[in-house]
Amino acid sequence: MRQAVGRAVQVNGRTVHVEESGSGTDWVVFEAGGGMGRTCWDLVLPLLKDRTRLVAYDRAGFGRSGRTATQLSIEDLASDLVALVEAVVPGRFVLVAHSMGGLVARRAAEGLGPRLRGLLLLDPATESAPVYDTFDRTATKVDHSLAVTQALFRFRPLARLASGNIRRLFPPDTYETMLAEDFVPAGTAQTRKEIKAVAAAIPRFRAEPPDPPRCRTLLLSPSRPQTGRARHHAALTAHQRRWAKSLPDGQFESVNSGHIIQAEQSTIVANRIKHLLDHASRTDIRSA
Question: In the prediction, which pLDDT does 227 show?
Fold first, then answer.
């Protein structure tokens, strides 16, 4: 399995596992999507390690992080992200977030303020889309399905079979680490909690949306929908585009990928991170 060295960091009374790599004066922090952790960025990090310092971590309760006894909200996870940055990153940085992590990142951006140099969102959850009108019922169905998966994951051959779609996307050493840490009953239990957190957050985000990011924000949207979900995919994409265009410095881009863009289009993701770093550097020079 992969041999990256990490460390435990205390955030808000919880323990999260953090891996730091790369070199340079710039910093990039990664926020994974639901049901995934630091390992989902393994194809992106090597493309940036000679340019910038990189921080990937497992949210509380997931991967190598400490377990949680209570149900954490998106706001709790955003607070953990802010606390992690304060503990690990000495200055300003670019934040990259995938899927559910987009909700966490947008809420965290309110507390990060000028420290945030740029924001890259990969197929983020967009609460305004019609697909989320009934997400509470969707979450209940997903939870029932995950309860079965949680039981199946007690048996390694079944866990390997059920996670075949992930195995095809990642290098063998990354997948084996995911299999050992994430595709286990405890990992699925935490994924169920995060689905519930998203369901609870949707009406709050609709009632009081997070403040728009004050930095350049790039949104990458996958062009390939899941089987049987073309209509929902089109609606979500339209709302992602509308949200990105509504920002003071937002850009929308469609990429040839499925949902896990960082695995299927890691080079594009790395290049967009470099763009955000370059743009922030030019802005810093003009402001000096």
Answer: 80
